[in-house]
Each structure stands twice: as structure tokens, then as C-alpha cells.
Amino acid sequence: MKLYFAPMEGITDVIFRQVFQAQFGGVDKYFMPFVSPSSSLSYTVRQDFELSPEQNRGFFAVPQILAKDPLCFLGAARGFADSGYTEVNLNLGCPSGTVTGKGKGSGMLRDVDGLKRFLDQVYGNSPLPVSIKTRIGFDSPAEWEKLLPVFAVYPIHELIIHPRTRGQLYRGTPYRETFARATETLTCPLVYNGDLFTVQDVQQVQAMFPAASGLMLGRGALTNPALLREIRGGAPLAMEDLIRYHDRLYYAYMKTWKPLTAVGRMHVFVKYLSHSLDVPAKYVRQAMKETQPEAYLDAVAEMFRRAQVKDVPCYSQQEYAMPAFRQDP
Ligand SMILES: Cc1cc2nc3c(=O)[nH]c(=O)nc-3n(C[C@H](O)[C@H](O)[C@H](O)COP(=O)(O)O)c2cc1C
Q: In terms of residue numbers, what domain contains 68?
């Protein structure tokens, strides 16, 4: 079974991909966080860096496009084909209000006829195979039954299903039964995504959906960067893994970005990694409070000194909230 790293805007950028690949690897494909091409198809300097084939060498990276205008999608796909990419992904899942308000991302699931017209153009003209990452509906899981016949008629390279509605964001129980419906109805390769936080979660989903061709992991692998290794039968997460990984990320960001921006990004990683640690809350909070490089490094070193890796590192469902750490005795 293939294992994919989920695209996570503001987190799984190219620096992350390089560091993760060098230390852990084991990822069949990294899906890049979305780009939303304008009609001029021009990118910012940072996007150019992010998308550059040179920076994405040594691993399989798939650019993701967020667009509702088929011409924008196709123009971006042509650019990716010209730079040597071999596949692109369409974002039908983004739940953000600013995105869905423009009828993009999961907003496209609301208008089934519009979606068909868009996919006719895309699949009729794309220079590259197009995979799709989708939710199962906008307001209700019942919408899935209307979406399945749409997906059935296109040569979808891979359909990655996050079985939540837009309204659920990344919370609440995924409607796993909708994935089963897809395995009954569709013939394209199907990839399951959502709440795979432990080896046990993965084994459960593999047993439920033997027809799935792959699994995509996001928050689980950010929390426990050794999770894919463990799934493949390797060693569980150790403290040395975490410290080395943290330091590699930190110095890679410091080399490329301004110090304050780099430390800001590291706070995001610390937030996820802290779910893997048994550590008094105050040490995590301190690390996430420090904005100056030296003070930040001291605080992180103290956090790791006071911490132990949990027996079963696991992302906590409290998305965007600090986890409930145990208090100092
Ligand atoms: C902060 C954040 C950013 C995300 N950015 C993207 C994105 O750019 N494109 C996308 O398709 N999904 C994006 N997602 C959704 C993830 O790819 C994934 O579907 C979601 O986290 C559920 O998988 P998980 O339970 O394994 O984390 C994002 C999720 C989060 C939490």
C-alpha cells in the first residue's frame, strides 16, 4: 500500500519535504500545499522556490492546484508539465471560507453541474494525469451519492478522499462508510485520508478497505515523524529522532528565511511534535512563546530535557488548540 504525505499549507513546504525525506523518507508521494494560479499565471518568489523542480529533487512531489476556472487550471498544469512534473492534483477539499466563498476548493462540490463542466475541460485538455483530493460533500454526507457518478466518468489518476464534509473542517468523526461506497462504485485508484494517527489506526483502515491503493497522512505524521517508518515495520519514535529532526528543520529554515519567520514556523512544528511528548505544559508554552532564536533554542532544549516520548505518540483531535498537557507536580 502506498503512503502519501498530505499537503498542509503553511507547514509541508519544500524545506520541510527536504528535511523529512533526508531523515525519515518512506513517502511514496508528497502532495504540495495548493497554489491558486491567477489568470496571469505568475508566482511569487517564494512560490517559485517552492515549486522549483531543483528544490524538489530526490523525492516525488505533486503540485496541487486550487482553481475554478479550467483555463487557470490548465495553464498551471502546462507550466508544471514544462518544468518536468509528471502529475498534478486538483483541490476539491479546502474548507476555508475565503476559498469556498469564491466557489473554489470544497466550494466546487456545491455545484455538481459546474463541477462536471470544469472536469470536462480539465480531463479533456490536461497535459498531465490529474488526481483529485476531495471531501464527501459541502453540507451533508448525503451529497456523496451525487458526486460519485460524476467522479465515475473521468480518468482520475487517483482519487484521494477525506471523508468529511466542508462543515466539519478537520474535526468530528470521518464518515468512513463513504469510502466503502467509493470502492463499490469507482474504478480509479482510491486513497484514504483522515485521522490516521497511529499504527493501529492505519491497520484498522487497511483491514476495512483492502481495495484502497494508498493512504495519505497529515497531522499524524507531523506529530510522530516516525509513523510511516513504524507502519513499514521500522523502529518507533525515539527522543533522538525528535531532537535531530527539530534541529535539521530549524537550521534549514534559518538558512533560508529571516530568523523571526523561521522561529515562527518552528512553533508550528513544536505544536504538533508536543503531542508525542509526555512533558509539563509550561515547557511547551515557553518554547512557543520565544521569538528570538537563542531564547527559542534554549526553551526547546529545556522542553526536550524534561520530556519523554509517549508510548503511543498520537495527535490529539483538538485541532488548532494546545493539547492538554499534564501539569507540573
Ligand atoms: C493547517 C492545514 C493546512 C492544510 N492545507 C491543505 C492544502 O494546502 N491542500 C489540501 O488539499 N489539504 C490541506 N489540508 C488538509 C490535509 O491535507 C488533510 O486532508 C487533513 O489534515 C486530514 O488529514 P489528517 O487527518 O491525516 O491530518 C490542510 C490541513 C491543515 C490542518
A: 2-231
